[in-house]
Design brief:
The structure holds 2 protein chains of 2 kinds.
Chain A: E1 3-12, E2 15-25, E3 30-35, H1 41-49, E4 56-61, E5 74-77, H2 89-98, H3 104-117, H4 133-145, E6 151-155, H5 163-178, E7 182-186, H6 190-196, E8 199-204, E9 207-213, H7 214-220, E10 224-230, E11 243-249, E12 252-257, H8 260-273, E13 276-282, H9 286-294
Helix pairs in contact in A: 2-3, 2-4
Chain B: H1 2-17, H2 19-36, H3 38-45, E1 55-62, H4 67-75, E2 82-86, H5 90-98, E3 104-111, E4 114-120, H6 126-148, H7 152-159, H8 178-215, H9 219-223, H10 228-261, H11 265-273, H12 276-303, H13 310-331, H14 338-343, H15 350-360, H16 365-393, H17 402-412
Parallel strand pairs in B: 1-2, 1-3
Antiparallel strand pairs in B: 3-4
Helix pairs in contact in B: 1-10, 2-10, 4-6, 8-10, 8-12, 8-13, 8-15, 10-12, 12-13, 12-15, 12-16, 13-15, 15-16, 16-17
Classes of the chains: A alpha/beta, B alpha/beta.
Chain lengths: 300, 417
């Protein structure tokens, strides 16, 4: 057990930004924190980092609080991207990583490895404002990991990246995990979370609405999707009890149902109606669960 | 401590290496050197250097039969004018002057006891008239004394100056003579202005630096590694160092300028005019004032989200500095006024007003100690409060509002456990 968050609460005036989150993240784990905007992800991150004091509860990394004395153990990529626009990549990384207690030579050595890895060694002496947004994001990612932190917190690491760069960053994150780094990250893109995380927490208005292992969550989730292919109009299914949503297609429909019982009802309805080419019961996607639990669309 | 040095060297280094800093400092240094050498430069541009003295045609119609004009010629040989004894009448002289034969015409009429002088000339400034009048007066006195046939002793009786000394009422008191008063006046004036300039320019620099880091959003990354209070102090000290370098370069430029001009301007100032204790006080108040204003400036910078809002946010601070400056200008003429005395206890006014009181009047040592202690305590307190607000402020984004901002920042930085 490395990162333990215990009944964490943060109240601003009467607004409860984070309302009693508890979780445990194992060493070397990649953990996803999901939630719509304003759900309390960034506030939680800030409390983990010690930037904000919790109103109640506490956060411990290997049994101790994260204070400025232990800041070199932690790497952070904030949601709001930002670097010194007028400084070169090198000066920038040297300054930011020196604050983590690393010396200049090691910083430059490590920086070159990362720049090579991201295929941009020529950026070393370029001024940040001359780089594209995607490349700035790479540099900021490097700033978060250069000092080889034990705990890495990534707030929306892949937003705003093209698929090629997003993949590059994703691979880097996976490598870091393999090397033993504990990673906590938030994302609006559910596919990324499904791809990278084993465990997750989903927040809504500061509270955990869902928490645990991703596979278990999906399997035990009542809501299911049914993919149907049939030659006749399936609009009548809308009136079947337990149907949440129906999306008609040329040769059938995708139906979202409350639980397996509703699926059984639909199956017998169809059997009496006529021939069915395909009837497949699927586990819900994280996207569906997110919309169901976190409420509203996952907007950027 | 390590992070303090990293922030300090980063802030100072960035400033000192920036082109803007190097260029503006060089321009200011050049300006100072040229200002000190203004005379030499002007002479170099106005031709051969030994410029012709303007000629004055003297039309002597006094009862002394031309003696006056001759005497004027010899007496004023060392002066700024070349007097010519003109034999024609005024009209002729005036028309010759129009032909540029000479610049001015001086017509003298009457007798020695009722001498009248008319001075003709284009574009004369008041000093020209005064100088000519002095020359005429001196000539008249010489002629009069020789007409009275006075000996040297009798002359000395009339012309020897009075020896006038000012003494304090008690043996230990001090009196400012007119001369020392003027010297201290200008020195205090200059240093009060320097304090004002330093506080305003460096204060703005601090606030802009903080706001720029906030608006570029790099701040959150920085404060996740370094305590905001350490970072704030590192910044204030770093910019202070850049300011100190700037000031030193300008002082060196002034020395270089005076060395080039060949005048003993500075030796003179250092041996006669400047009171060393005043210089020490000035340095002390510049540093303490910098911390008082710098802490507030950093706090204000942390309250805004964009660099463009800095000017708006820092206005109250600039107003305070301006009020202190203008009150000081008044105080220079009334350093013992009650309200100057009272205001000198207010930390934002202390650097200028206490310095002024020390320079211009007599402040008891205990009062200097009390007010300075107050200033030091306030500087510490202001920085502690500013750091609290700074800590919350750097994580805060949105439209700038002074009152709401401070409230919100305090909430964010609240110590809860």
């Amino acid at each position: 057990m490395t990162l333990i968050i215990n009944n964490l609460k943060k109240t601003f005036d009467k607004h409860k930004a984070v309302d009693g989150i508890s979780l445990t993240i194992n060493e070397g784990e990649m953990f996803g924190m999901l939630g719509a905007n304003g759900a309390g992800k960034t506030t939680s991150f800030r409390m983990i980092l010690g930037l904000l004091d919790p109103t109640e509860g506490d956060v411990r990394w290997k049994g101790e609080r994260i204070t400025y004395k232990r800041t070199k153990l932690v790497g952070y990529l904030p949601e709001e991207r930002g670097l010194f626009p007028k400084l070169t990549v090198k000066d920038q990384l040297v300054y930011l990583t020196k604050l983590k207690g690393m010396n200049k030579q090691s910083i430059i050595k490590e920086m070159r490895l990362w720049l090579d890895r991201f295929g941009v060694p020529e950026y070393e002496n370029k001024v940040i404002e001359e780089l594209s947004k995607g490349n700035q994001q790479k540099i900021q990612f490097i700033a978060a990991v250069l000092h080889k932190p034990e705990l890495l917190i990534l707030d929306e690491p892949f937003s705003g990246l093209d698929p090629v760069n997003a993949d590059m960053l994703k691979n880097a994150v996976k490598d870091l995990q393999e090397r033993g780094t504990t990673i906590v990250f938030s994302s609006h893109q559910m596919s990324n979370v499904e791809e990278l995380c084993e465990d997750l927490i989903m927040l809504k208005k500061g509270k955990a609405v869902l928490q645990g292992n991703l596979r278990t969550i999906k399997r035990s989730y009542d809501m299911k999707n049914i993919s149907i292919k049939a030659d006749y109009d399936l609009a009548f299914l809308e009136d079947v009890k337990g149907v949440l949503k129906i999306e008609q297609k040329k040769d059938g429909a995708d139906v979202k149902v409350e639980n397996e019982k509703a699926a059984e009802t639909i199956f017998s309805c169809l059997a009496s109606k006529g021939f069915v080419r395909k009837f497949e019961l699927e586990e819900p996607s994280l996207h569906d669960i997110f919309i169901d639990k976190a409420g509203g669309a996952a907007h950027e | 401590m390590n992070n303090f040095w990293t922030t300090f060297t980063h802030t100072a280094g960035r400033r000192l290496k920036s082109k803007t800093f190097i260029i503006t400092t060089s321009i200011m240094a050049l300006f100072i050197i040229s200002l000190i050498n203004l005379n030499t430069i002007l002479e170099a541009f106005s031709g051969d250097g030994a410029e012709d003295e303007p000629a004055v045609a003297v039309v002597d119609q006094t009862s002394e039969e031309g003696q006056f004009a001759e005497m004027l010629k010899t007496l004023a040989a060392e002066g700024s004018f070349e007097y010519i004894h003109y034999s024609g009448d005024v009209e002729q002289a005036l028309s010759d002057a129009e032909n540029d034969d000479f610049t001015y015409v001086l017509e003298l009429t009457g007798t020695l006891d009722a001498l009248q002088a008319e001075f003709y000339g284009e574009g004369t400034d008041f000093r020209t008239g005064q100088e000519v009048q002095q020359d005429v007066q001196r000539t008249k006195e010489t002629l009069a004394t020789s007409a009275l046939d006075l000996n040297e002793q009798e002359l000395a009786l009339i012309f020897n100056p009075v020896s006038f000394n000012e003494k304090p009422l008690s043996g230990t008191g001090e009196v400012q003579t007119a001369e020392t008063h003027m010297q201290t006046y200008w020195m205090v004036y200059g240093l009060v202005f320097v304090i004002y300039l330093i506080v305003v320019t460096l204060g703005t620099m601090i606030a802009t630096e903080v706001a720029t880091e906030k608006s570029s959003r790099v701040m959150e990354l920085i404060v996740s590694s370094v305590n905001p209070v350490t970072q704030m102090l590192g910044k204030i000290m770093g910019i202070g160092l850049a300011g100190l370098v700037n000031l030193s370069v300008l002082v060196l430029a002034a020395f270089a300028g005076s060395y080039l001009s060949g005048e003993d301007f500075f030796t003179n100032i250092f041996t006669e005019v400047i009171d060393y204790s005043l210089i020490i006080y000035a340095l002390l108040f510049i540093i303490l004032g910098y911390f008082v204003y710098g802490g507030v400036a950093a706090m204000l910078g942390a309250l805004v989200s964009r660099a463009e809002e800095v000017n708006q946010a820092i206005q109250p601070l600039i107003f305070l500095a301006m009020i202190a400056f203008f009150v000081s200008l008044y105080g220079l003429n009334a350093p013992d006024a009650i309200f100057i005395r009272v205001l000198s206890y207010v930390p934002f006014f202390t650097p200028q007003l206490l310095f002024l009181r020390i320079g211009m009047g007599t402040v008891p040592v205990w009062e200097i100690a009390v007010i300075s202690a107050l200033l030091i305590i306030s500087a510490v307190l202001i920085n502690i409060i500013a750091a609290r607000i700074y800590k919350g402020g750097v994580l805060m984004y949105g439209k700038f509002s002074f009152k709401k901002g401070i409230k919100q920042a305090l909430k964010l930085s609240k110590k809860e456990s």
